[in-house]
Amino acid sequence: MNAGTKFAVGAVLIVGSVGYLMASGIKATGQYFLTPSELAQRISADPSFYNLGLKVGARVVPGTVEKEIATQTLRFHITDGTVSYPVVFRGLPPDTFTDSVEVVVEGRLQKDGVIHATDVLAKCGSRYEAVPKA
Amino acid sequence: MTLLGHLSLWLALFVGLWGAITGFAGGLQGRADLQQSARHAVFAMFAALALATICLEVAIFRHDFNVQYVAAYTSRNLPTFYLWSALYAGQKGSLLFWATVLSLFATLAQVLTSGRHRAYLPFVAAVTCTVATFFVLVMVFAANPFERLAYTPVDGSGMNPQLQNPGMVFHPPMLYLGYISITIPFAFAIAALLSKKLDVDWLVAIRKWTLVSWLFLAIGLLIGMWWAYVELGWGGYWAWDPVENVALLPWLVMTAFLHSVMVQEKRGMLKKWNLALVLGAWLLSIFGTFLTRSGVIASVHSFTQSPVGYFFLGFLLLAAGSTIVLYVIRLPLLEAEATLESMVSREASFLFNNLLFIGLAFSVLWGTLYPILSEWLQGTKVTVGPPFFNLVNIPLGLALLALTGIGPLIAWRRASIPNLQRQFAVPAVTGLFVLLILLVAGMREIGPLIAIGLGGFVTATVFQEFGRGARARHRQYGEPLVLAVLRLVARNRRRYGGYIVHMGMVLLFVAFAGMAFKTETQATLRPGESATLRSPYGQVYTFTHLGISQYDALNRRVTAALVDVSRDGKPVGRLKTEKRQHVDALGRNTFEASTEVGIRSGLREDLYVVLGGLVNGTEQAVYRFTINPLVWWVWFGGFVLVGGGLIVLWPGGGSPAVRRTQAGYAVKLESKQ
């Protein structure tokens, strides 16, 4: 076997393992990214979506945010305009989290109909762009 | 001033177009008058854009809030320091900054390129003018930084408090400088393809430039990590956020290129590959710009969605299409002069190194784009986060770290068994010894064990190389060893500077491994109450909440919490963490309250204290306490890496023979049979 062939074998091994790592990585860690409506649809079609780790992108419903600082619990509702879900999160929310901000909630929807979040990202759509005062 | 600025943008647009047309035409037809004109167009474009930049800065410093950009990103009470960075705090200003710096680099490329490579210059002028003209085009038609409002606000909206950090003053320009300077190697690559002068010459012309952009990207990434760590308060420095990822991509490709280019210089192999890497790195930099500015991928960093994204998408597709076509047409001219002789050779190790770097870049790209790809392919959006990137990239990173040690020890062409024994004995034993110590100390986590063990191995190879070289000089010239080491580095900056970069990487890897042992706790404390946290080294830290103070500062109301820290009962100091509510000149709140982290940095670990909030306005406070091991070594490793890069970059030096090989005359190695 000449060096070129040997190298080709090595290259195939590397490319193969990169491919394998990526495929298995996506399988093991990939999470659905859904809107509340999509989540509701999936839940009604397939109850196994309960207690499945996923991300939900939506907007916080103004006036629903309850902060219990003593227990570090944050409760709020999220909506995409049609479907809304209550969310409970224990931990410190990011600085950008406010009433009516766009959020990505990472967590699991439980049978009680509440999304138990493990992480809340405030997707301040315009972090660098302050909203000019009208 | 804005009128003048706006006019200079238009001037830059026309001059840039002229430079692009005359550059391509003059280069292809060999007409000296057109070539000269293109060269002058580059200079004129830089002058026009520099004038536009000055105009914008003047408007910012004069608080001319009738200018939309000034009103949107600054305010009267913004500290002067941040008035400078307001130039690139927003989309429009950063486009202007980008175009200006690009035309500066284009000018430098015209002026600094030495006689031997002058034939490339008309094409280089054409390519740089085309790219810069595109940026000016976007400004003129979609994002005019000099746009005026119909009224004049009393005060501006102010700068986002998270951007009011020294790191944010330097991080964006450094990354931009890295991104932008890739255009110069790209321009030379296109010039080489167009002029069919594809020998090793063009590589020599761009080597410094590739190193410059590699270095700026590295500095930009490091400062960005530092900013994320001290400012964002989540307790880490790298989150695999899409915007971070796209900044990492060109750096990975450039790193691959800096290695594989040596194979072409020494052995005349990998011509197609090297060219593809340069073209790819530039396309990735434009792709990154597009991703950051279009809002296509949800990221905490993204600018607002704007039509600018479509401009970039169009430009990206056009540039990618024409680049690929040109590349394919010229492929027959890029045949290798030699073939691989042995798997156990320096060039083979470089090949594997390149495959790993590109594999790394590809997986990062794939993971970043997966939400879009999965939506296309399966109809549902699936995202991957840090677990995916860690799962894929840690093994690849460790394999690269191993090659960092192996590569420099293997001979070119074909390594013999005695050669291998002589080279690897000490480093291998050192690596195993480090591993043994860690195991005895009780470390059982496989990733960190391998990382630190390999770190020992690579460190030993670097010291062995320095030791051998210095001892040879000591014997040959009778120099004292310290002087011998210094001369060694000075005479062969590329090689030994490269080893120092490797040492920086080792430190970074060890520091990254340390984060596997991070611990944290949250607590709600009344004044006088404390929380405890056990460090990974087994000591117990006690954090005692002392109290809250509130006061006004220049442009913010501060709520500061003070924490007393002791380790195993012995006091180690106090930490302060703040909530800052920024206000405008009239005392009204602007933005959300932001958090200032309290950090006590040490060689072993960082204490990282975040104030979560106050319970109902009392002095009862919510805290998060984190112990981050070895973070200091990230910054130190970064300094070592940048220092090594600067040594390689430093002009001059070297014996005539070394200079000749460094200048890229491929050395024809005689067969030793």
As a percent range, the share of helical residues of chain A equals 25-40%
Helix count from the secondary structure assignment of chain A: 2
Q: Largest interface, by Cβ-Cβ below 8 angstroms: which chains and how many residues each?
A: A-B, 50 and 72 residues
CATH superfamily of the largest domain in chain A: Nucleic acid-binding proteins
Roughly what fraction of the amino acids of chain A lie in strands? Answer: 25-35%
Highest CATH level, the class of the largest domain in chain A:
Mainly Beta
CATH class of the domain at 1-159 in chain B: Mainly Alpha
Helix-strand topology string of chain A: HEHEEEEEE
The number of distinct structural domains of chain A comes to 2
**SSE ordering of chain B:** HHHHHHHHHHHHHEHHHHHEEEEEEEEEHH
Low-confidence stretches of chain B: 654-673
Defining traits:
heterodimer, A: 134 residues, alpha+beta, 2 domains, 5-stranded mixed barrel, 28% helix, B: alpha+beta, Four Helix Bundle (Hemerythrin (Met), subunit A), Tick-borne Encephalitis virus Glycoprotein, domain 1, 4-stranded antiparallel β-sheet
Structure, described:
The complex is a heterodimer of chains A (134) and B (673). Helix content of chain A is 28%, strand content 33%. The longest helix of chain A has 27 residues, at 3-29. Chain A has a 5-stranded mixed β-barrel with strand order 2-4-5-7-6. Mean pLDDT of chain A is 82; it is low at 125-134. Chain A has 134 residues and is α+β, with helices and mostly antiparallel strands. With 673 residues, chain B is α+β, with helices and mostly antiparallel strands. Among the domains of chain B are: 1-159, Four Helix Bundle (Hemerythrin (Met), subunit A), CATH 1.20.120; 386-516 and 636-662, no CATH class; 517-632, Tick-borne Encephalitis virus Glycoprotein, domain 1. Chain B is built from 20 helices and 10 strands. Chain B has helices at residues 2-29, 32-61, 68-73, 80-85, 91-112, 121-141, 166-181, 183-195, 201-232, 242-267, 271-294, 308-330, 346-378, 386-406, 417-441, 446-477, 481-491, 493-514, 631-649, 656-662; strands at 381-383, 519-525, 530-534, 540-553, 556-567, 570-582, 594-596, 598-601, 605-614, 621-629. Chain B has a 5-stranded antiparallel beta sheet. In chain B, helix 1 runs antiparallel to helix 6 (121-141), helix 5 packs across helix 7 and helix 16 packs across helix 17. In chain B, 51% of the residues are buried.
